[in-house]
């Protein structure tokens, strides 16, 4: 079997204590893999650790236990330039598109290429205009090339989110990590965005790891569904093998004494 794009092994994340307890264990042995060309959806209740896992994979948070490997390389051992390069392999998409509203759509997409350019001009805030053809190709991929010169602030929420996918693709990543990318979209725009993410996985061969709160979208679009509870992955199946009661059990409110705060 080929090396997975992302391997998460026994990941733990204990956030430091604010009060008298010894902190909060947000991840407690989370284990999963993501292969090129697959769309994997993570489902789980608020606070179960989904965003924390994505942030550890993206190298934005340093886990307190376990390991994340990107293309076989443990990111915990990386720093400086090598960490930046490993991060460039992973494009992030968030609930909100976070575009610079007063700049054009294509300028926002160009910003996705910044991590690959080091020059005084870039350090001073210039955009790498030599990447414009690539940025336009990414905009075309999300169906919005005709919006290139328009100010980003004029876009609808669904369009803005597709531009944020184009910006992530402009980075030339091997995987996309999407944290509730459809949370603020209407049903049609959510559908369009999931169709786009599936195409990016199946046609372009990227691995896509996507957190959702919509089990029905997960069932329709995912190649695999991961169920997360209390900081670990408790099921990992193709949608046709995911039982309704397994999904509903993820959202059962648990007594405070059963919670993970350890
Ligand atoms: N920086 C932090 N410091 C302390 N605790 C944190 C921090 N970030 C997250 N947590 C805690 O870790 C737990 C997991 O948070 P996380 O954001 O990963 O949940 P989530 O599954 O993404 O939830 P949601 O569905 O609401 O987005 C929560 O209890 C949260 O309060
Ligand atoms: Mg979250």
Topology diagram in text:
Layout: E1 6-15, E2 24-34, E3 39-43, H1 50-57, E4 65-70, E5 73-74, H2 80-88, E6 90-93, H3 105-110, H4 120-123, H5 132-141, H6 157-170, E7 175-179, H7 187-202, E8 207-211, H8 215-221, E9 224-229, E10 232-237, H9 244-250
Parallel strand pairs: 3-8, 3-9, 6-7, 7-8
Antiparallel strand pairs: 1-2, 1-4, 4-5, 9-10
Helix pairs in contact: 5-6, 6-7
This protein binds adenosine-5'-triphosphate and magnesium ion.
Magnesium ion is lined by residues 50-51, 179.
Model description:
The protein is α/β, with parallel strands linked by helices. The chain has a domain at 37-51 and 87-253: 3-Layer(aba) Sandwich (Rossmann fold), CATH 3.40.50. The protein contains nine helices and ten strands. A six-stranded mixed sheet has the order 6-7-8-3-9-10, with helices on both faces. A four-stranded antiparallel sheet has the order 2-1-4-5, with helices on one face. The protein is globular. It starts with 5 loop residues before the first strand and ends in a 12-residue tail after the last helix. Residues 15, 24, 26, 44, 46-52 line the site of adenosine-5'-triphosphate.
What descriptive keywords fit this protein?
alpha/beta; 6-stranded mixed beta sheet; 4-stranded antiparallel beta sheet; 10 strands; binds adenosine-5'-triphosphate; binds magnesium ion
DSSP helix count? 9
> Compute the gyration radius: what is it?
19 Å
Q: Supply the helix-strand structural class.
A: alpha/beta
* SS strand fraction: 15-25%
CATH superfamily of the domain at 37-51 and 87-253: P-loop containing nucleotide triphosphate hydrolases
Bound molecules: adenosine-5'-triphosphate, magnesium ion
User: How is the quaternary structure best described?
Assistant: single chain
Number of strands: 10
Q: In which range does the helix fraction lie?
A: 25-40%
| Spans where pLDDT lies below 50 across 5 or more residues | none
